[in-house]
Amino acid sequence: MAIALWIVQGLLALIFLITGSFKFFQTREKVIESGGTWAEDFKPGIIKLISGSELVSALLVIVPRLSGLSHYFTLVGAASIAIIMTGSIYIHITRKEFLHATINAIFLLLALFVVYGCTH
Q: Does pTM surpass 0.90?
C-alpha cells in the first residue's frame, strides 16, 4: 500500500501543481478561453483563491513525505484537495458539464485514498 500511496500522492501533486499554476498565473479570460468555462461564474479574486489553494494543497500532499515531516501535513493537503474537488464537482454538475464532474470525482477518490492511507 505504501507504493500505491506514493504514486497517488505524486500524481495528485503533479496535477494540482500544473492546473493550479495555470489558473493562478493566467487571467480569468485566458482560463475561460482554454476550456475552464466554470470561471465565467467567478470573479478573478475567487479564481486566484481557488488556484492558490490547489497549489498549497499540492505541496502539502508531497513535500512532507519527501522531507520526513509529519504525515499530518499530507493528510491536510489531501483533505483540502477533497474539499476543493467536492466544490468543483458541484459547480460542474450545476453547469451540466458532466465529463468534468466525472474527472474531478476521480481526483476526489484519489485524494480520499491518500487521506485513508494517512490515517492507517
A: yes
d(CA 29, CA 36): 9
The amino acid sitting at 36 is: G
Question: What confidence tens digit (pLDDT) does each residue in 17-58 have?
Answer: 999 999 999 999 999 999 999 999 999 999 999 999 999 999
Q: How far apart are CA 73 and CA 60, in angstroms?
A: 6
42: left (phi over 0), alpha (psi -120 to 50) or beta: beta
Domain spans of the chain, in order of start = 2-119
Within 10 angstroms of residue 96's Cβ, the number of other Cβ atoms is 8
Please state, in angstroms and as integers, the Cα–Cα distance from residue 24 to each residue in 19, 30, 36, 48, 52, following that order: 8, 11, 13, 5, 6
Q: Is the pLDDT confidence value at 96 over 90?
A: yes
Q: How many CB atoms lie within 10 A of CB 24?
A: 17
Q: Which amino acid belongs to residue 81?
A: I
- Report yes or no: 106 and 46 within 8 Å, Cβ to Cβ: no
80 pLDDT exceeds 80?
Answer: yes
